Amino acid sequence: MKYSSKLRYRRQKFGFSLLAIISFLTIVPIAAVVIYILVLGAPALNWEFITGFPRGGMREGGIWPAIVGTFYLTLGTAVFAVPIGIGAAIYLSEYAPDNKVTQLIRVAIISLAGIPSVVYGLFGLGLFVLFLQFGTSILAGSLTLSIMTLPVIISTTEEALKSVPQAFRTVSVSVGATKWQTIQRIILPQALPGILTGVILGLERAAGETAPILFTVAAFFLPRLPSSPLDATMALPYHLFVISTQVPGMPIKIQYGTALVLLVFVLGMNIIATTIRSRARAKRQW
Amino acid sequence: MAREIRETLDRKIEDHFGAISDLGSIVEKAIKGSVDALCRRDLELARKIYTNDQVINKKRYALEASALITVATQQPMAIDLRILSSILDIAGELERIGDYAKGIARIAMRLDDLAPFQDLAQIPKMAEMTADMLHRAIYAFINLDEESARAIPEEDDQIDTLYNDVYKELLDLMIKDQKNIDRATFHLWVAHNLERAADRVTNICERTVFTTTGELIEFDRSDDEADAF
Amino acid sequence: MNKFSIQNYSLQYSDGTESLRNISLDIPVNQITMIFGPAGGGKSSLLRVLNRLNDLADVTHQSGKVLLDEENILSPKTNVITLRRKVGMVFARPVVLPFSIRGNLTYGLEVAGEKNNDLLDLAVETSLQKAALWDEVQDRLDDPAIALSGGQQQRLCLARVLALKPEVILLDEPTSGLDPISTGKVEESLQDLKKDYTIILVPHSVQQAARTADLAAFILQGDLIEVSSGDTMFTNPTDQRTRDYIQGRFG
C-alpha cells in the first residue's frame, strides 16, 4: 500500500478540520454585522423612536412613518407579486408544454432576475410614475418592487411544486380527478410551505431595497402617514440612506437604530420563513 | 372476507385427495368384485369389472394431469410438495391394483370354460383382507395418519401366509391329478395377483409415511417368494 | 363474454422505448388475466392503454382499437374521467396520498362531487372489507395513511380503487415491493374479487402468473407471442420462446 491507513486518516482529519474552520469563518461577518449594529443602535431604541415622528431635521424623534411605509410597500408588493408569481409558476410547472414558447418565458424570467435594482427604479419611474401618471406613490413603488420580486417567487414556487412527488399526480388522475382538481387538492396544499417560504424571502428582499423605491415612492420627509396608495411615503431603506448621507450632524445612534429596526424586520421575516419550512418538513406525509 | 394465504393451493390439494379417495373406492370394489365374480361364477360381473378398468385408467391419468398442473402453477413446497408427489405415485399404484383386479376378472371369465371350479377359502379371504387394507391405507394417506400407515403393512404378513397355504394346496391338487393343472394354475394367478395387490398397498403406506416424515422407508417384507420354493 | 377487445393495437413513444406492435387480445369478464413477460416488453404500456393513463406519457403514435364493452376507448369522444373510474389501477409501489386513511378512500368520490357523509362512510367500510384491510384499520381511520406498513398501504390502494365501484381492476406488479405474507393476502383477495370485477394483472414473476392466472398472455419486446388458459400456459406452452421464458432460460 502506498499510503498507510494511519496517514490517510490523518489527512482526512486535516481536511475536515480545514473545512470546519472555513465554515466557522463564514459566521464571522454575519455576527459582526449584527453585533455592530446592535451595539451602536440599541441605545436609540425606545418607545418614542419606534412610534414617533422625526423631529429637528430627523436628528431627534422617531421613525414611525418609515416603518409604516416599509410595511405598506411590502404589502403592496405581495398583492401584485404573489398571485401573478404563483399563477405563473403553476402554469410553468403543471401545464406548460415543452416547446419554444415555454423556453422563451423561462429565459425572460431568468433575465428579470439579473436586472440591477437601480435599473428597476428607473424603469418604474418611467412607466408607473410618469407614463401611467401614478406619480411618486406607494402604487408605483409596489408595482416596481413586485416586478423585481417575481423571478424569486416564480422559481421558489416552481421548486416547491416540483418537489411534490409525481406519483401523487398519477394516482390522482387515475381515480378520475382532473388536472386542476389534482393541483387544487393535493399539489398546492403540499407545496404551500415551500411556496410560503419563497414568498416571504422574496418580500423580505423587497422590503430592504433602496434603489427601486428611490424614484418611485420614497419621500424625504412627510409630516403625515400616507392615506391612499397614490400617496408617497417614507421607507426604512431610503430613510437610512438619507439620514446617513444627507443630514449633517446626525447622531450615530439614530442611524444605527434605524438600521437595527430594518435588520430586525428583515431577519424576523427570515426566522418566520425558516420556522414554517422546518415545521412543514416534520409534518410531511411523504 | 379474509381468505387464508394459500387457500387456492389447499383447495386444490383437497380436490386431489377427493379424487384419490374416489379412485381408491373404485379399485377396492374391483378387487372384491372380481374375486366375488370368480367364486360365484358371475360372468356378468366379471365382464363389467374387466371393462371398468378403462374408467380406472382414465381417472388415474386425469388425476395425474391435474396434480401436475397444481405443481406447475402453485409452486408447492415441503409437505405440500410431498403430498403432491405422493398423489402422483399412489395414483399409479391404484391403477396397477386395478390391473390386478382386471386380471382376476379375466380369469373368472376363462374359468367358466373349464370344468367345475375348486373351493379354496383362502382366496376370498385374501381378497377381503386386501380390500380392507387398501381402504384403510387410502384413508390414512388422506388424513396424513402416520401411525395407521405404519401399522397396516404388518397385516401383509397374514396375506403372505394365506398365499403360501393356497400355493401348497394347489400344488397338491396338481400333483394328485394332471387334469387339475389348468384350473389350479389359474387359481394360482388369482392368488398371486391378490398378494401383489397387498404389496402395492404397503407401497401406499410407505408413501404416506414419506409424506408426513420426509423419509422414504421400506416396510419389511418377509421373503415369501424364496420360502415358497 | 369479453370485457375488453384489443384489436391490432400499436404504440410508439417519442424515445422509441416500450412500443407495442399489432396487439390483438380479448380479455374475458370476471376472470384474472395475466400479461406477463420479460422487463421492458411493453406490458405496463398495454395496461395503461386500458385506462388511458398513457395520455400522460410521451406517446407519438397509436393505432388500432381498444374496445371496452364494445366501445372504442381510444376515440376522442371518450370521457376519460368516467373511464378511469370504471377502470381502476393499482401501481407497483404503494402510493398513498398525503391524507388520512379515510381521506385516501374518499378522495376519488369527492373529486366526483360526492358530499353525502353517510355514503362516503359506507364506501370506506365496504372497500376496506373487500381489500381485507378493515379489521386492521377500522379504529384508526383518521390516522395518516403513511403510517401503515407496505403491505397495508398496497391494500389501501386496492381499497381506494374499489371505493369507486369500478368494473375493471388493473394491477401493475402490485406485490413487487411486498413481503410474502402480504403478497399471499393480495393474491387471495383477487380470487374473491374476480367474482365481481374483471382483473388484469402484470405479475412480477412467472410464479405469480402461474399461481393466479385464469388467462395468460405472453408479451415479448412489444409482440404478443401466445395466449392461453393459465393451466395450459404453464404446463404446456406452444411457442418455443414462451417455453424458454417460463422455464427460466432467459428473462
User: How many DSSP E strands of chain A?
Assistant: 2
Structural class of the secondary elements of chain A? mainly alpha
Distance between the termini of chain A: 46 Å
Helix/sheet category of chain B: mainly alpha
User: What is the subunit organization of this protein?
Assistant: heterotrimer
Which percent range fits the helix content of chain A? over 70%
Overall mean pLDDT of chain B: 89
Strand order, biggest sheet of chain A?
A: 1-2
What are the low-pLDDT stretches of chain B, counting only 5+ consecutive residues below 50? none
Residue stretches of chain A low in confidence (pLDDT < 50, at least 5 long) are none
Instruction: Characterize the biggest β-sheet of chain A.
Output: 2 strands, antiparallel
Instruction: Give the overall form of chain B.
Output: elongated
Helix share bin of chain B? over 70%
Q: What is the element string of chain B, with H for helices and E for strands?
A: HHHHHHHH
Structural account:
- The complex is a heterotrimer of chains A (286), B (229) and C (251).
- Chain A has helices spanning 5-41, 47-51, 64-95, 100-114, 117-131, 138-163, 166-174, 179-208, 211-214, 236-245, 252-283, and strands at residues 54-55, 60-61.
- Chain A is mostly helical and 286 residues long.
- In chain A, strand 1 and strand 2 form a beta hairpin.
- Chain A is globular.
- Helices cover 82% and strands 0% of the residues of chain B.
- Chain B contains eight helices and no strands.
- By secondary structure, chain B is an all-alpha fold.
- With 251 residues, chain C is of the alpha/beta class.
- In chain C, 36% of the residues lie in helices and 26% in strands.
- Chain C has helices at residues 43-49, 80-86, 101-111, 117-130, 134-137, 150-162, 180-193, 206-212, 230-235, 240-246, and strands at residues 2-13, 20-28, 32-36, 59-68, 71-72, 87-90, 168-172, 198-202, 215-220, 223-229.
- A six-stranded mixed β-sheet of chain C has the order 6-7-8-3-9-10, with helices on both faces. Chain C has a four-stranded antiparallel β-sheet with strand order 2-1-4-5.
- In chain C, strand 4 and strand 5 (71-72) form a beta hairpin.
- In chain C, helix 3 packs across helix 4, helix 3 (101-111) packs parallel to helix 6 (150-162) and helix 4 packs across helix 6 (150-162).
- The longest helix of chain C has 14 residues, at 117-130.
- Chain C is globular.
- The interface between A and C is medium-sized, with 19 and 27 residues.
